[in-house]
Amino acid sequence: MKKKPVLSIFADGVRFDSLQFMPFTKSLNSVPLETVLGYSITCHPSMYTGVYPNKHKIAFHWIKGRKEKGPYTFLSYFPDFFPFSNPYVQAVASHFYSKFFLKKKASPFMGYGKLLNLPMKFWNHVDINEFKYWDEDNYINGDIKTIFELVRNNDCKFHISNLHKPNLGKIDAIQVVEPDSYDWVYYFIGETDSVSHNFTQHSPEGIAVLENLDNFIKKEYNRFKRVHGEDGFDFIFWSDHGHISIEKQIDLYDFFRKRSFNLKNVFHLVDSTTVRFWPRNESEKEQIMEIMQDVSEAKLVSNEDLESLHLAPDSNLYGELFYYLKGGVVFIYTIHGFGKETKSMHGYHPDAQGNDGLFVSNRRINKSRVTLPDVFSSTVTSLGLEYKPSFELDGENVL
Ligand SMILES: [Zn+2]
């Protein structure tokens, strides 16, 4: 069994073609990385567990709750009580409610948070999809283990930095270490994603972050090289998806209103690049499908699509009707916010132009397009971790 120290660096949302702004990183071996349909919340479990969403079942921040009473059921009793019908008041109410009453119940990356643009009468239907932080024990119920659980269970000496608040993801806040006493060093970078949302990835602000990232990688790579020698360690740098500049915004509520359909009467969840509907009956379902046909940038996901995209055929996660948008198009007035200022987005189909992440290594990469589960399997193999799960892993070692 091969066993080498591993330097892992993750940066959120770095496009494959952003290597052009990263001369050191580009000088290593690199291939595009195929993402999964959905945003970071579904990508992280895929890269930390080696299985796709159809197995780990983390799809979105908000899903249709499986229990009769959800975390927001209490607030759903006030739908028609002025001033609760105002979306701004709803945002504030849900924010303080989650902050003071729900926060202690769960500790995931995204928390509970506020609910926007979804009428209050539907708040009893929603729940969060992810209840624990990535590095907590039993992040996924059952036999599926994360890389964090494996390194702890295998007595692997590790150092992880920037995975938690308050410095979550900021390059300049990373606590670096000398590599001689560690098997695994993992640095988590998030600011590549936020700068892309705010300015686009290839804006002057975005390029400045990429250059800072490239310098950081060079420094930490050379630190490992000095201690272990060029062949004495495995280096893996990757991102979870790309980023696509926004060209068009769609207000779905307005779109439905103009076709004499009040969307606020149907339980639905609008994310930036997807919309899920739970119609009450067949005729409502047909009406929605007919109107959605007019959104030429939206594609309905069939059961076959779910399978080929490695997504679970589970209507609690994906709705009775699940649509995604073409690259560069977004919905505004989503469950998370108003979305009008955002300049760039992710969460598109894995084949959308610009949506590939990247995978970089000092080793030869024996695949032309790496997947998120491959990141897990390659890391586990390099570290020589013992892991024989009862189910089939979706990732493979690519180094
Ligand atoms: Zn991400």
Written overview of the protein:
With 399 residues, the protein is of the alpha/beta class. It folds into two domains: 195 residues, Alkaline Phosphatase, subunit A (3-Layer(aba) Sandwich), CATH 3.40.720; 95 residues, Gyrase A, domain 2, CATH 3.30.1360.180. A seven-stranded mixed beta sheet has the order 5-6-1-7-16-2-17, with helices on both faces. A four-stranded antiparallel beta sheet has the order 10-11-13-12, with helices on one face. Strand 10 and strand 11 form a beta hairpin. Helix 2 runs parallel beside helix 12 and helix 6 runs antiparallel to helix 7. The longest helix has 25 residues. The model has no long low-confidence stretch (mean pLDDT 91). It binds zinc ion (ZN). Zinc ion binds next to helix 2.
List keywords for this structure.
Alkaline Phosphatase, subunit A; Gyrase A, domain 2; 2 domains; 29% helix; binds zinc ion
DSSP helix fraction = 25-40%
Fold-level CATH name of the largest domain? Alkaline Phosphatase, subunit A
Helix/strand/pairing category: alpha/beta
State Rg.
Answer: 22 Å
Query: How many DSSP helices?
Result: 12
Label the CATH architecture of the largest domain: 3-Layer(aba) Sandwich
Q: Mind describing the biggest β-sheet?
A: 7 strands, mixed
Any idea how many domains? 2
Secondary structure tally: strands: 17
Order of helices and strands: EHEHHEHEHEEHHEEEHEEHEHHEEEEEH
Q: What is the residue-mean pLDDT, rounded to a whole number?
A: 91
Indicate the proportion of strand residues: 15-25%
| Top-tier CATH class of the largest domain | Alpha Beta
Give the end-to-end Cα distance, rounded to a whole number of Å. 14 Å
Bound molecules: zinc ion
Any low-confidence stretches, pLDDT <50, length ≥5? none
Spatial arrangement of strands, main beta sheet: 5-6-1-7-16-2-17
What is the CATH superfamily of the largest domain? Alkaline Phosphatase, subunit A
What is the general shape?
Answer: globular
